[in-house]
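This entry is listed as follows:

___
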Amino acid sequence: MASRNIVLMLLIILILTGCSQQVQKEGEQPPRTDAPREKGFTGYVVDRKEKSILVVNPEHEEIGTNGETSRYYPAKWFSNVPDSQIGTYVEVWTDGSPEVEPYPGRARAESIAEYAAATPDGAKISEADAIRGGIYLSDGKEISLPVIEDVEFHPDTGIWTVRMRDAMSADGNQAQIELEVRDVEPVESVQEQKSE
């Protein structure tokens, strides 16, 4: 009889522990186990080399020495990124390996989220295309570490205004540079034309 009670108690314990899983509310998405838990590094892709991208966050910190202040923009090169285009706004999570700290920093990307670039009504190109165009303009090429601060489309003139600063500028106030990019449809590459 005593062994029967023990078996019965073990059976009850087994049943109770098996029924203790989390209950999901109706209409609620189950938590993703592969989703990163902490906020990643966000910013615009402003350069790329092979499978690496340079991401610069437009949110700055005021830093100063000897009574003068300047802006510090977080910037990092991320390796292990195959396809992100210049001008794209991204969030990057690292794989936890040590980061190299000279400015801009370096880290290995574990995952990346690209945010869809807006194409306003009446525009032929996206915000990312306008940023890319601004960086490739002759004035944009003179900026060693572009910080994208604002992008605006003017439908009445068909012009995009891309406002940026140079994070590496020796100029104390890192003056804002305003570049105008024409809103023209992107030209297909020769490869794309041959495949049709």
Q: What stands out?
A: Residues 54 and 139 are 19 Å apart (CA to CA). The radius of gyration is 25 Å. The longest helix spans residues 2-18. The first strand starts at residue 41 and ends at 49.
